[in-house]
Each structure stands twice: as structure tokens, then as C-alpha cells.
Amino acid sequence: RRTMAASPQSIVQTLNPSSTNISTQLLGLFASMLSSQKDSETVASKLTELAEEAEGQVPSSDIVSILEESCDQKSYQDILSTAKIAAKRSKNYHSMLPFLTRTGHEDFNSG
Fold it and tell me: 25-74, pLDDT tens digit by residue?
């Protein structure tokens, strides 16, 4: 049995449990991770577009509707797993940010 049913809502919640908005930085990271998965290219390009058009924050509801129209039920589980990794990477990135800005490595994320 799976603990959490994968749905667009649970995917968005996984990305940011504490807010109804997702930062464009996190969305961009998530989209680029999805773009390397063979069934997720379409949704990845739509999310990338969304991240590029938005100013800093994207409403979760926008992401949910993209997921609903671009994915089928069976790909939600994979997308949810990717969301967990993206959220974890983003947290690590933010906890290292003060240190990195001090040491002048503002571009370490592009790897």
C-alpha cells in the first residue's frame, strides 16, 4: 500500500507544504527534473513556461491544472517522487544559501 495517493494536489503539497504558492525557482528545478523523464516532457515544458512567466511565486492551483490536463493517473506517482526530490534539494539549497553568498558561489546551482 502506498502512503499518500498521488494526485496533482498531493504533488503541489509535497513541493511546498507550508504555502499555496510555489516559488518560481523551485518550480523551475522541478520542471527541469521532470524534463529528463520520458513521459513528462510535455508537463515539464508547460511548468517551465509557467515559471518563466511568473514573478517569483506561482499559485498552486495553476500547477494543479497543468498537471491535470497534461498527465494521466499513472504518471502522478513518478511526478510525486520527483516532487519529493525537488523539495528536498530546494531545502538544502536554501539552508546553504547564506554560506554560499558569503563565499561568493552564487551559481553553484547550475550543475
Answer: 999 999 999 999 888 999 999 999 999 999 899 999 999 999 999 988 88
Q: What is the pTM of this model?
A: 0.79
Secondary structure of 12-29 in HEC code, one letter for each residue: HHHHCCCCCEEEHHHHHH
Closest of 32, 37, 35, 43 to residue 71, by C-alpha: 43
What count of other Cβ atoms lies within 10 Å of the Cβ of residue 41? 13
What CA–CA distance (Å, rounded) separates 58 from 22?
A: 5
Positions of E strands within 3-94:
21-23, 57-59
> Which grid cell is 31?
520542471
The count of other CB atoms within 10 Å of the CB of residue 106 is 10
E strand residue ranges, 11-97: 21-23, 57-59
Query: In Å, what is the CA distance from 82 to each residue of 42, 48, 58, 97?
Result: 15, 15, 18, 22
User: What does the block give as the cell for 72?
Assistant: 494521466
